[in-house]
Design goal:
The complex is a heterodimer of chains A (733) and B (183). Chain A has 733 residues and is an alpha/beta fold. Helix content of chain A is 29%, strand content 16%. With 183 residues, chain B is an alpha+beta fold. Classes of the chains: A alpha/beta (733), B alpha+beta (183). At the A-B interface, strand 3, helix 7, helix 8 and helix 22 of A face helix 1, strand 2, strand 3, helix 4 and helix 5 of B.
Chain lengths: 733, 183
């Protein structure tokens, strides 16, 4: 604004409502726990830049401490990604510090796994126990028998420890349970994937297509900001979603597609675009191969063919294909992020990639930019031991285009002992009970372990299955690794402590280093403390820790990010071109051009269970944050109004969802709404906590993952599709 | 005399509640209570639907029933027409809560009527209210409705808009911008 600052504002009486910084529910905890970092003065207002950890986006933030108390956290105005504005989760980030349910002390299991009964131990006792077990596993089975599951940049020091120990089995659910199929589909087409943050140039797009992506509910900060900009600029918006999402409410076209039929719609668009020669001819001629084979393969996939499959009228498909082409190359068909839906997700992602290629949007303004980054030196570590056995997750390259480790592949090996036994799991900041499909299989695998360690800030369900729980300090109390961002402009940023760690919590880097000493791997942690590690990397790159701590981020020189700005078009596929027809897939007997295949449909009385995101929660990680809890305490099951009426249910009633295998959900509130199709129901992911430690959030809402007993594996990259479960609805007693 | 208000662009708002969270931390609003909230209005039947998402709060009405009915003078118009509560004069009688057509007030656990202050402590420093300063969609504008050259006045003049419950006769000062421009 600033219109106010330039005008004299009438002085407002001092006796009126000021900032009530002393009252409020958070203060009780504050008085007990707060230990301000030694660099922060006890009186007055003090700000410290850091980067956020409420999701993986890593927005740069500035935390404000007032009179020794953590007051608020806001975006860092010089950050190209947040532009000085955090999302609601980031703004509520201080709640993760004040969460009374957070873990406080190292814990060891008292009775059986899963019983959540603990003995408090010292850090040294915990590390001694873990190191003894790890040494035993190494001597009996080799180092590969320990696997790490992690999420987020905080996992870096544990990845390093595991590599030093000698295991290559390092996995994150963000691949096989989330974005993996998308990345495989784009790699097969362009030779590169869309990265994270995605290289989508939403703000400059003139025609934006969202397929299941619910931006605005899905709160990827930069994307939502750019989405709002695009709306203001009049970007044409087409939303394909069985649910009338927030984005759908702003769209020029909403296609309430029949779930599981997206590929048919995309093929019909491709059919129109190639037959009417609406594609970017110069771009395709120059950069792509396989147009003729593509054209031939989709020749029957007309809009008339797609209509009975998708429920989207042929003339609408034809009209929107033409409209899309009118705005090329600034036509962006968004690749999505959580795309593990039906089991042919890499193929759907490839269809999206092909459609983008036809629009000429890859590498172009308003399409997909080419991300740039700064060159920051790695720490000069000694070489890691070499693993003879190789990774356990994907024997015989069963999933030929898995370019990251498959979590569920490790789980399978842990159950079967093949191709070799896995006897130890380290879990960092990922709640595998809420993340991996089919909870029973996860528990079965855990029962085969000799060691199960969980590093967490909160008592997530997976901690209940641990032998040892290591309580981590929250992002507001610790350093993490340098974030070297790949984005529209190059920058690096720092996470640094605003406060001293509360209770007996410790930062991850400290745990990894201490464990390395117990394991005799101290040569891989030659630095004395994290500041020395960070400063070494920065000094070796021409910067300093002091400089980075002060500003929070350092930017590099602007560089071109579009072909039209001088970026050299490069497509690191085998042919060096965009592969509309994939010889790579053909070689494995997989469809070289995506084909539509019918998916199983819900039997009468059943509804397909869909799930997605809320803007105020991240996965299952924020439900006990007292600030975000106040925004959304439980999820609701969206049921079409007609169906709800038929079942004599109204909004606010509680129901139980029962899936095809008889698994019953926790009770969940009904949202009877016109905003969803009749053949599916929808809930927000992350609710229905069961951990005893979650005093605040336990038992509120339903967990989608509990109901995902059935899953299908993507043959291309091993992703686990989860939108395949059907539920009936029973009134809760 | 200034008349402060907000213009909120419903075409951009995604209802993410960042405004609600920011108000909560900025003003240390007690647990379980909020000074602003999201209202979603859906019209039509599947699949022909329209939806309006509004970030709502005290309308800082020019003819405020809460001020008119306050027996102690705690609720009052302050500088710029901002409706505020003198905590020390408030007895917690709840007459204002009953009178407000927007349900914008609640009793703070400390005993006084509480609500949105337009973040006067920030406005005095030349800053936007906290809700506006964090909004990731840039859908909100704060300013002086009596100044024809202010950004907010220009928006209210140029864009189609409405207020909430104008029929209550309270002359609310929050304008919701909707699709299309004023001819």
């Amino acid at each position: 604004m600033n219109s106010i600052s330039r005008r004299r504002f009438l002085k407002i009486g001092a006796a009126t409502a000021g900032v009530a910084a002393t009252a409020g529910a958070l203060s009780k905890f504050t008085q007990q726990a707060v230990k301000i970092s030694s660099s922060v003065p006890e009186k007055g207002v003090y700000t410290i830049p850091t980067y956020c950890d409420l999701c993986f986006w890593k927005c740069n933030a500035i935390a404000t401490v007032k009179d020794g108390k953590l007051w608020k956290i806001e975006g860092n105005p010089i950050d190209p990604m947040s532009k000085g504005r955090l999302c609601p989760r980031g703004t509520g980030g201080i709640g993760s510090y004040y969460d009374p349910d957070r873990l406080r002390k190292p814990l060891m299991r008292k009775n059986n796994r899963g019983q959540e009964e603990w003995v408090e131990v010292t850090w040294d006792e915990a590390f001694t126990f873990i190191a003894d077990k790890m040494n035993k596993i190494k001597s009996e089975y080799g180092p590969e028998a320990v696997a790490l599951f992690s999420h987020g940049i905080g996992g870096n020091f544990f990845k390093h420890l595991m590599k030093a120990y000698g295991t290559p089995n390092l996995a994150a659910p963000s691949f096989a349970q989330c974005r993996g199929p998308r990345d495989a589909g784009f790699r097969l087409t362009f030779g590169e994937d869309v990265g994270s943050p995605e290289r989508t140039d939403i703000e400059n797009s003139k025609f934006l297509v969202l397929i299941g992506s619910h931006l605005g509910e899905n709160m990827h900060n930069t994307q939502v900001q750019e989405f709002a900009t695009a709306i203001e600029r009049g970007t044409k918006l087409l939303v394909v979603d069985p649910r009338h999402s927030v984005a759908a409410s702003k769209a020029d076209w909403w296609f309430p597609i029949k779930p599981g039929t997206d590929i048919a719609l995309i093929l019909a668009w491709i059919n129109v675009i190639v037959n009417e020669e609406l594609y970017d001819k110069v771009y395709i001629d120059k950069y792509a191969i396989g147009l003729d084979k593509l054209k031939k393969t989709v020749s029957n996939n007309t809009p008339e063919w797609a209509y009975p499959i998708t429920g989207i009228k042929a003339e609408l498909i034809r009209e929107t294909a033409r409209e899309m082409a009118r705005y090329k190359p600034a036509t962006l068909i968004h690749p999505g992020r959580h795309v593990t839906w039906y089991g042919d997700d890499s193929q759907r992602s490839r269809a999206i990639a092909i459609l983008n290629a036809l629009m000429g949007s890859w590498g172009r303004k308003g399409g997909f930019f080419s991300p740039v980054s700064m060159d920051i030196a790695s720490y000069p570590y000694p070489e890691f031991p070499h693993s003879e056995k190789g990774k356990v997750d994907n024997p015989d390259k069963k999933y030929p285009f898995a370019h990251e480790t498959i979590t569920t592949g490790i789980r399978e090996a842990t159950i079967s002992g093949k191709p070799y036994p896995v006897k130890g799991w380290f879990v960092y900041a990922t709640n595998l009970i809420f993340t991996l499909p089919n909870e029973d299989e996860t528990i079965k695998a855990i029962q085969n372990l000799d060691l199960m360690v969980v590093v967490e800030t909160q008592p997530s369900e997976i901690t209940g299955w641990a032998d040892v729980v290591l309580p981590e300090a929250t992002y507001l109390e610790r350093y993490d690794d340098i974030n070297v961002e790949f984005f529209k402009e190059p920058f690096i940023s720092i996470r640094q402590p605003v406060l001293e760690p509360a209770f007996e919590t410790k930062p991850g880097w400290w745990m990894a280093k201490k464990l390395s000493e117990k394991l005799g791997l101290e040569k891989y942690f030659p630095w004395n403390n994290i500041e020395e590690y960070l400063d070494t990397r920065l000094k070796n790159s021409g910067y300093s820790l002091e400089q980075l701590k002060k500003a929070g981020l350092i930017k590099g020189d602007k560089q071109p990010i579009y072909f039209e700005e001088g970026v050299t078009p490069e497509f690191p596929t085998p042919s060096g071109k965009i592969e509309l027809y994939s010889e790579q897939l053909a070689a494995y007997g997989l469809d070289p051009v995506p084909r539509y295949r019918k998916h199983e449909e819900p039997p009468p009385g059943y509804y397909r269970l869909l799930f997605g995101r809320s803007p105020v929660h991240s996965f299952g990680r924020t439900q006990s944050n007292p600030i975000l809890f106040d925004m959304m305490k439980e999820n609701e099951v969206w049921i079409n109004k007609f169906i709800a009426d038929k079942l004599e249910l109204k909004s606010g009633d509680y129901v139980i969802l029962v899936n095809q295998d008889g698994v019953r959900s926790n009770k969940v509130k009904v949202k009877a709404t016109e905003r969803i199709r009749q053949d599916c129901v929808y809930i927000v992911h992350g609710f229905g906590h069961t951990s005893k430690g979650f005093v605040r959030s336990r038992g509120l809402g339903a967990s989608d993952n509990q109901l995902v007993t059935k899953y299908k594996i993507d043959p291309i990259m091993g992703g686990t599709a989860q939108h395949l479960n059907f539920v009936t609805i029973e009134r809760a007693a | 005399m200034a008349r402060y208000g907000m213009a909120i662009d419903t075409t951009k708002c995604v209802g993410c509640m960042d405004c609600v969270v920011a108000c909560k931390t900025e003003n240390n609003v007690p647990e379980g209570l909020n000074r602003d909230w999201i209202q979603t209005i859906v019209n039509g039947e599947f699949p022909n639907l329209t939806m309006e998402i509004r970030s709502e709060r005290c309308n800082h009405c020019t003819n405020a029933p809460c001020v008119n009915c306050c027996p102690t003078g705690a609720s009052h118009y302050d500088g710029g027409g901002i409706v505020l509560v003198h905590h020390d004069l408030c007895t917690g009688c709840k007459a204002c809560i009953a009178s407000c057509p927007y349900d914008a007030r609640f009793i703070n656990p400390e005993g006084y009527a509480d609500k949105c202050t337009f973040c006067v402590h920030r406005v005095e420093e030349g800053k936007d209210p906290a809700c506006i300063s964090v909004c990731p969609t840039y859908c909100m504008t704060f300013g002086d409705l009596d100044d024809p050259n202010s950004e907010i006045s220009k928006l209210v003049k140029s864009r189609n808009n409405h207020t909430v419950l104008p029929e209550a006769g309270t002359s609310p000062n929050i304008y919701y911008l909707i699709g299309g421009n004023n001819a």
